[in-house]
Amino acid sequence: MAGQVEAVGKDVTCLEPGDEVLGCCDGAFAEYARAAEDSFVLKPANVTFEQAAATGVAALTALQGLRDVGRVQPGQKVMIIGASGGVGTFAVQIARSFGAEVTGVCSTRNLDLVRSIGADRVIDYTQEDCARGDRQYDLILQLAGTHSPSALRRALTPRGTLVLSSGMGRLGGLDRLVKALVSAPFVSQSMRTWVSDENKKDLVVLKGLLESGEVTPVIDRSYGLSEAPEAIRYVEAGHTQGKVIITV
Questions:
Q1: CA dist 212 → 90, 203, 205 (Å)
Q2: 60-196 has which CATH code?
Q3: According to CATH, what is the number of the domain 2-56+199-247?
Q4: Cβ neighbours around 163 below 10 Å, total
Q5: pTM for this one?
Q6: Which of 1, 74, 133, 187 is most buried, judged by most C-beta within 10 A?
Q7: DSSP code, position 130
């Protein structure tokens, strides 16, 4: 979420009424929401409230998956499967900010979008199997798609890493995660999964990336608060480009 601070508790020291903030909280589809002060950072002046609201969960997932789980390094070849989605659009830009060479995998209609946010190369999964090309990658971040871990191993370098996103505090794609964990002890490549978490330290990192212009949130469309059910149905259809915003 993003918004303006209306009131603070007596022990709050980092924020004050009138501050413009971004972060994460429960119950954000409302005129007012509340959370601990560590859930927020000051909104950079160069981003809109809509862009700031798009950042929290999706950008945290991308940052932690690449940096902490995938241990991305400058010069590595990174493939992001699901590059046009909410997490994927952040992952492409964050991987570039770490100095990686990025290949984004998406559908035909999203090729230009993924190029525009910095992907060095794009793969149209309707035309090409990203697991069967002639390239190998140091790190693959799988955010979407139906490839099994064993299939994606073919696209990894001998010491490459496959990272499977399970989302923010929930176990999505459980079948893929189990297969990866079962096969991991028997291969030279590393297969990892994680559940990302909300924390102030990483929100500060994301704030810096927004301020520097290295990351610009991609917004598909915005809905009014009364249209929230329609917005959720649109997201659940699985074809969004970047994030969908509820504007109060």
A1: 14, 14, 11
A2: 3.40.50.720
A3: 3.90.180.10
A4: 26
A5: 0.91
A6: 1
A7: T
